[in-house]
């Protein structure tokens, strides 16, 4: 099974949500779990990044990072400023396919929002985005959203972009939920599913990224709807080396 995780913006909790999804999969019997990060920005080669945080929280999962750039910018801009090659769609697709073939569950964590440019070109609509990555993998997409004011618009736009590509929005995860939510947050918790037509499948309490691993693994499955079953990966005849513009 492959799941793609995207966010309504940067800083909404995608990495912790990815770790929580991995922990939930383990609690449901998955033994071989992998997380793929197509592009990482904002850290140098020597600094632990998002995948290290996932492993710290979710335990022994296979971590695959396809490209990394130091500047904390959109990947296409960070690559251009560094004078490095842009990420290639074929390489990302092949890495995900190879990883999925060897694991029960593969979770792909995007960068920023759903239309963030991973590369200047290579996508079906020009720039390469996580939508192209999900399309190549034939994977449903989990949307991580903020609970704060403005999230209804951001989440509706994200879900609309996913559906416009013919992809399946698998569910919404609220990336952080404070102990004392304000009025807008309480209303948003009720309205997210209504305005998007996509169920809220999980809500992560604020601060859980600081938990110890054992505590996180024990608690994470309880943050999700126990009846939620991820949609099956859709079939595709496209191979990573065929019919994909790099």
Architecture overview:
- The structure is a single chain.
- With 246 residues, this protein is α/β, with parallel strands linked by helices.
- It has one domain: P-loop containing nucleotide triphosphate hydrolases (Rossmann fold).
- 35% of the residues lie in helices and 23% in strands.
- It is built from 8 helices and 11 strands.
- The radius of gyration is 17 Å and the shape is globular.
- The C terminus is likely disordered.
Number of helices: 8
The span between the termini is: 25 Å
Approximate shape: globular
Q: What is the CATH T-level topology?
A: Rossmann fold
CATH architecture: 3-Layer(aba) Sandwich
Please bin the fraction of helical residues: 25-40%
Task: Provide key terms for this protein.
246 residues, alpha/beta, two-stranded parallel ribbon, 35% helix, 23% strand, globular
């Amino acid at each position: 099974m492959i799941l793609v995780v995207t966010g309504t913006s940067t800083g909404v909790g995608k990495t912790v949500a990815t770790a929580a999804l991995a922990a939930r999969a383990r609690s449901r019997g998955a033994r071989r779990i992998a997380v793929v990060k197509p592009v990482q920005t904002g850290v140098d080669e020597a600094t632990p990044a998002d995948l290290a945080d996932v492993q710290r929280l979710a335990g022994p999962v296979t971590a695959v990072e396809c490209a990394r750039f130091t500047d904390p910018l959109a990947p296409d801009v960070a690559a251009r400023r560094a004078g490095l090659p842009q990420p290639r769609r074929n390489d990302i697709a092949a890495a995900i396919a190879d990883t999925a073939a060897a694991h029960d569950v593969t979770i792909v964590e995007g960068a920023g929002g759903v239309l963030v440019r991973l590369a200047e070109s290579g996508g079906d609509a020009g720039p390469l985005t996580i939508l192209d990555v999900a399309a190549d993998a034939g994977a449903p997409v989990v949307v991580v959203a903020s609970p704060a004011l403005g999230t209804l618009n951001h989440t509706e736009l994200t879900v609309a972009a996913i559906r416009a590509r013919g992809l399946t929005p698998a569910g919404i995860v609220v990336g952080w939920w404070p102990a004392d939510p304000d009025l807008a947050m309480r209303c948003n918790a009720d309205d997210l599913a209504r305005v998007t037509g996509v169920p809220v499948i999980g809500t992560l309490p604020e601060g859980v990224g600081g938990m110890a691993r054992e505590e996180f693994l024990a608690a994470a499955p309880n943050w999700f709807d126990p009846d939620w079953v991820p949609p099956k990966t859709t079939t595709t005849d496209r191979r990573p080396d065929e019919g994909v513009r790099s």
